[in-house]
Amino acid sequence: MTTQSLPATTDLGYVHLTVADLPRALAFYQERLGLQLHGRSGATAFLGAGGSDLLRLTEVPGSRPMPGHSGLYHFALLLPSRADLGAALGHLVRTQTRLTGGADHLVSEALYLSDPDGNGIELYRDRSRSEWQTVDGHLRMDTLPLDYTSLLEAAGSKAGNEQLPVGTVLGHMHLHVGDLDSAVAFYQDVIGLNLQMRYGPSAAFLSSGGYHHHLGVNTWAGVGAPPAPPDATGLRLWQLRVPDEEALEAVRERLEAAHAGMMSHEIGTFVRDPSQNGLLISVRQGEAAGRGDAASAASV
Questions:
Q1: What CATH number has the domain bearing residue 68?
Q2: What distances in angstroms separate CA 123 from CA 11, 35, 74, 266, 286, one per listed residue?
Q3: Which terminus of the chain, N or C, has fewer Cβ atoms within 10 Å?
Q4: 275, 70 Cβ separation under 8 angstroms
Q5: Per the structure, how many domains does the chain have?
Q6: 294 backbone dihedrals φ, ψ, rounded to 5°
Q7: Does residue 5 fall inside a structural domain?
Q8: pLDDT score of 294 more than 70
Q9: For 129-183, what is each residue's pLDDT tens digit?
Q10: Which residue segment(s) compose the domain that 152 sits in?
Q11: How many other CB atoms are there within 10 angstroms of residue 144's CB atom?
Q12: What is the structure's pLDDT at 50?
């Protein structure tokens, strides 16, 4: 198959997760993380930072974390500035929210934590692209210690902020897959993301427009990890947004040629990757677009 890259303006919209207890999840995401509740429809809630939805949560009573399966590793919220990330860190400290880690990745600085259902979360800020380094034509990324003190000091006048700022977006997704090569082939050759780098034999990072990564895939849950069962918490789908109908149709043609089993969705095309992770591809729309799809989104 001839690879056709997605437009450089391709970005991410929202991630949709299963949780066991919606009030508990909403308390965490509003009070600890600083997201705002945009609305509810039945067992599904819509959250963001005042603009378009970034996170959708659907309650499935009795669901629980099930390690060792494909699915969500983490979703990553990109904050507009280092000061905003410093303010977010300060709020997490004040609310005694446990971090699972932090890192300087050279292209970015990141904080890691998990919600009450075991769903992984990253909060991060990007360094300017002029600061990114390339070695032998490949973007240089690393995992170095994070300077927490400097980050807290960077908050400046934003220290004390309890909500994530307007301009926060879903920056990237990172998924567990059962087979790395088939995942890379699907997201590169069929979807149209560009491979940025491989991290040994177990992880790879892909993007559009030269970004460090819109998607990470790894086999850290085990090579051959099966899809998560229906009663697992975690990923339902994530949204990849293209700029126009022409770009969406090009993806549909590649999916059809690959016999990928795509399904029509109210706001785009739904497909599962080779590890059965759900992906919704749609044209970028207005801020509240697609909230009427809660019932259909909850069923996939």
A1: 3.10.180.10
A2: 17, 12, 10, 30, 24
A3: N
A4: yes
A5: 1
A6: -55, -45
A7: no
A8: no
A9: 999 998 887 888 999 999 999 999 999 999 999 999 999 999 999 999 999 999 9
A10: 11-299
A11: 11
A12: 87
